[in-house]
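Reposting from the mailing list since nobody answered there.

I have sequence plus structure tokens for a pair of proteins and want to know whether others read the tokens the same way I do. The first protein:
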Amino acid sequence: MYLTTKAHKGNTKAHKVIIKNRRYILHSLPFLIAGIAFACVRIAVHNPEFVEKYYSTGLYPVIARLFSWVSKIIPFSVWDIFWILTVIVVLAGLVLVIIRRLTILKYLLGAGQFLALLYTLFYLTWGFNYFRPPIESRVGWKKSIPQEEFFRSVLDSLIKGANSSYISIDKSQYPVVDSLVEKSYRQNNDQLGISYPNGSRRPKKMVLSSLFARSGVSGYFGPFFNEVHLNGLLFPLDYPYVLAHEKAHQFAITSEAEANLAAFVVCSTSEDKRLRYSAAINMLLYFLNDATGLADYHEYVKKIDSLVISDIRARSKYYDTFQNKTLEKIQRKANDVYLKSNHIKKGIKNYNEVVALVISWQQNKRQLNN
């Protein structure tokens, strides 16, 4: 009887040790997975060609097709709902800590595990695309140093393009615009170095459009669910360009400058005036910003038709009604940190680097035509 009881106690003790070890392993697993992901990120940073071959053009298109097929059948933004629920859970956890229904250590452990899994999921579903080669390497053209003469030439062509393609755009035309953007992406597949169709891209309106409008966000790509988002308060003439920009991210183009270039190429080469006008206006604003140092800057401004000038002023006035400088400053700082942490060295200044890319694209196109 004594021996049986002793053996039983020994088995119980061993069972408890096994359970304890299992719990330890389960608690540690998210951090272990994140550690492996971090090591892969460090390797990827120094091996862009490997990333391009095995992830960007290998694994990612499979992920994009699967995730976008699922998100396509859901009419609302899964990404936005996910983050809203996350905030609710985080706040609920804090309340439980305050009323002592949950220890601070368990709360912090849970939060750490959640962040570790998010980190891993981000890079697995899309983030490794940050480490692929730049677009000039992918499509085989040279990224030239912008010369003032060619800069002026492109600026002139943008002004002429805006003047000649002037047209009004309203929200009722958005579905048609979406199909036209898709058509142009299919036609520009090779020169942009993308894998069309790469799944599907159903544009979704941000759940918190008003909040994002106040912080200056016109659109974003949700990598976890492969979703393209646009602000429901976009100024209509921006819609084609912003839509094309966010779709570029779905095609594994992570650089903001490259996404701007893709949007410009897709919209400016379209047969549809709405897309061409949107491209001309948005790119013209980037070029005019860089042209302010030219002695004859105002002479270029005078070349812009009054109707186009009216649209630019109306656009600026429209966005000013939403602007909240504090929110915009926070958003810009957060985006800057995010981009730099993913090896976009210039952070939010990367958007403006599209000027050099457009000039290079135009120069390479001319060389091919000659």
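The second protein, same order (residues first, tokens after):
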Amino acid sequence: MSVLPTLQKQRHPLAGGAAQRVRLAALPVARSFADALDGAGLLPLRPTGIGVLQVNVGKKCNQTCHHCHVDAGPDRTEMMPGAVVDACLGVLAEHDIPVLDITGGAPELHPDFRRMVQAARALGRRVIDRCNLTITQLPNYRYLPRFLADQRVEIVASLPYFQAKQTDAQRGDGVFESSIVALQELNTLGYGHAGSGLVLNLVTNPVGAFLPPAQGAAEREWRQRLARSHGIVFNNLYTITNMPISRFLEYLDSRGQAEAYLTRLVQAFNPAAAAGVMCRDTLSVGWDGTLYDCDFNQQLDLPVDARTPRTILEFEAQSLVARDIAIGNHCFGCTAGAGSSCGGALET
């Protein structure tokens, strides 16, 4: 149990979560997120349960994307230690949490990735792998497509756009081509085909300071374009709003657009989306075992309510389900327009 304090001292120099919270709070907007929730009758915001255990196994990634809210990249060294992995699997074994959502960085780079998947599947849990696609094309990870298919893992694959120019601009030269090859291989294994049981969902977020397009219309266009140009099929397209944190906040600041973008999010606040935000059904676990209400709060170093256990090593379902969810002005990103979550738009 002494592992956590030691790990928490190892934070990367880029992890400026608290400073970014202050920056967001200082941006002048018409009302705070707490005021918006209060006006919608949703304050304090509380969980409806724990349906998803979302585990961020580390910051290391084979890509460095311009809008990454995790600040992930090849130079990051933070990786979830075995003791914390064991604690996550222990919670799944002892509690009726139906979904394990594994994320990163590139989660497949973690040495315990296969063990986590196999253990969770043996428990009958639905497992989601948030995959950047290109990882499956690296020599040491060529096993991944077949492994994921054999384990019936649901893949949520990030792809900025259905054309090379926009994708490579956000993720680096050659990423689009490598992603297309990966998707074609997954299709060959059965992913994305109706009736196969192998779910392949794509996720996109806009490359700029604006809200994503309507998810239904975007999905129809993506389906047509990818099928016609590359013979690719998939199950669903998720559109996600860029959160004004980490690299994207730096991007906005560099262009003098931070205040305008946050104001746009505030003006688009949707009470119906606020009622269905993912933090009400999801518990996020950081690489060091700290518990958060969502992956975005994790990147801002904003852990769960101090009146509840704050690490996976001290997991206590009853108090966690009764907690007040930690909020801030960045939360307007999840409640703007049709809403945004790790499963895409909240209203379609």
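Reply #1 (J.P.):
I read it the same way you do. Residues 5-15 have pLDDT under 50 and may be disordered.
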